[in-house]
Amino acid sequence: MTAQIKIRKAKGKWSVRSGGAVLGETTNALELSEGDHEPVIYFPREDIAMAFLDRSDKVTHCEHKGDAIYFSIVNKSSVTENAVWSYENPSPEAARIKDYLAFATSDSVKVERI
Predict the structure, then answer these.
(1) What is the mean pLDDT of the segment spanning 34-53?
(2) Does the pLDDT of residue 2 top 60, yes or no?
(3) Is 96 buried (19+), middle (13-18) or exposed (0-12) by CB count in 10 A?
(4) How far is residue 20's CA from residue 50's CA, in Å, rounded to a whole number?
(5) pTM (whole model) above 0.85
(6) For residue 68, what pLDDT is reported?
């Protein structure tokens, strides 16, 4: 089965927050849709405060996108383990998300269109 990956520019301005801190805002987000999964917003690295992110040892593989590396979010009030992922060398069909970051939303991590 082939997952259909669709990547398009996300309309509007997007923000990601964790523990009360704004990690980034962008008008250059991408929205990735894959099969029946909920769409995921990807932020350009240059629009994220990378000082809040610590690279972890976790790596996962997606047959359609390639290997994902992970980061934990570290701020004054908490550490959210492996809450951010990135495809540094994505497959050709996902090439547009190279150098972008996606965030696992939770009670402590919010991705919003503003």
Answers:
(1) 95
(2) no
(3) middle
(4) 16
(5) yes
(6) 97
Residue 82 in this model has a pLDDT that exceeds 70? yes
How far is the CA of 81 from the CAs of 3, 7, 38, 96, 102, in angstroms? 27, 26, 21, 26, 14
Q: Token match 């992970």: residue?
A: 70
CATH number, position 23: 2.170.150.40
Q: Are strands 79-86 and 66-74 parallel, antiparallel or unpaired?
A: antiparallel
For 86, the token pair is 């990135």
Residue 3 — very low, low, confident or very high, per pLDDT cuts 50/70/90? low
Tell me the residue range of the domain where 80 lies. 5-113
Sequence length of the chain is: 114
Q: Tell me how many domains the chain contains.
A: 1
